[in-house]
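Weekly structure sync, notes
Attendees: PL (lead), two postdocs, one rotation student
Agenda item 3: pending single-chain targets
PL asked that the sequence for the first pending target be pasted directly into the notes so everyone works from the same version. It is reproduced below exactly as submitted, 465 residues in total.
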Amino acid sequence: MKKHLLIFIFSLGYFLSFSQNAPTVYVDIQAPLPVCNPGESTTLQADYLQTYATNTNNYDVTSIPYAPQFPFIGGTLLNVEIDDIWSPIVDLPFPFCFYGQNYTKLLVGANGVLSFNIAGVVPGGTETPLVPGDCEWSYSGTIPSTTFPIKNAIYGVYQDIHPGLITNPAVQNINYYVTGTYPNRAFVLNTSEIPQYSCNTSVGLQTYQIILYETTNTIDVLVNKRTACTSWNGGRGVIGLMNQAGTLAAVPPNRNTGTWSAFNEAWRFTPSSAGGSNVTLEWFQGATSLGSTNPITVSPTTSTTYTAVATYTRCDGSLIQIQDDITVAPEPNLPTLDPQDITLCTSSPGPYTFNINQNAYMVNGYATPGDFVFRYYVDSSGAPGALIPNGTLNAYTPASSTYPQTIWVEVEEQGTVTGTGCINLRSFQLNVTAGPSGSFSYASSSYCESITTPVAVTLSGLTSG
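Predicted structure, written out during the meeting:
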């Protein structure tokens, strides 16, 4: 039996769920093979999401399927209808690690960019909320660059768009929302159907999305459509990340500063394994630690609950713990009868022959006796020894002349009676005893049926049997 600590279900206007591709942290103990007999071993395997620290300032950039899991509209509208302006400060509901630094606030620019570089909040911050013209539109170089106009930022897609030209604000807007549940929330920033500056709608409306994932610090950039306005600012656009100093960047292939176009593509930026793992796994039985080996071997004698705990360390030092429990118990004995002891009464010398085949007796009453397989073994120091061939069961002559002696029966379930495939061991005894003997006599020399009074009987030489 399993019990998960966390279930992630959420909604935004309608039901949404994280797809398998979403970088959500979890622990899942796989169902183990059954423990057929008390004290036997089985293996527990816990699956969990491996994540890495951002302190090495490296990100892996991968192309992922374009399959939007979050809508592009429906969130909180940002006050960026003025061209080239930064939004008010947006508070993140979870700390986010970006290039080794921990952030809880950000700004959204009117030109398809998100920045943590807030003046007066972040040391060395340069971007000021709600100042027209402060979200720079003009740039020419590629990233990384120490002279790039906006740093400590996520570009998705950074180009000179003009929210002031929208005509249908219900669909055309820049919005954000937070969805999901701790510790797998996501901050979703949408740029929806915004015209280009200068070209306006002549090159099409621009739509893209930036997603920040809690705990994993993974970033997704989805581009529904991006077309270059080549008559303005060289038609430049860029997708990527860059640190505060402008010395490190992560950019998808062919998506650095340029006049490229993109439709229905998605990119994922994941902290690189070079940063080292920031997650540990530990097993517990109750409050007792069983160590961090995974998979782990356990040998329960009774019903026992085991817990796998994954601990994720954020870049601010805080911890996130997720656990999964599983209860493992020895399976009930297979539903077959125990074999019976066999005693041979004889006064003759050995060797002796027995019919030890008890298969029919052990499955008596079951509709599908073929679901069970029986194997017989001689005894070897209190445990099964050599296999007794099936062809000798009905006329088995033990090699040993010492009695009593033990015969072991291995019962294996191969059908659907229990569905476990378990094996049980049963045993019975073989014994040999002579028939009873002795003599008796009467006190008088004769006995007639006319004598009606009891006559004493003398017994002698009695043996059991």
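Discussion points:
- The helical segments are 359-362.
- Residues 59-275 form one domain.
Action: rotation student to compare against the earlier draft before next sync.
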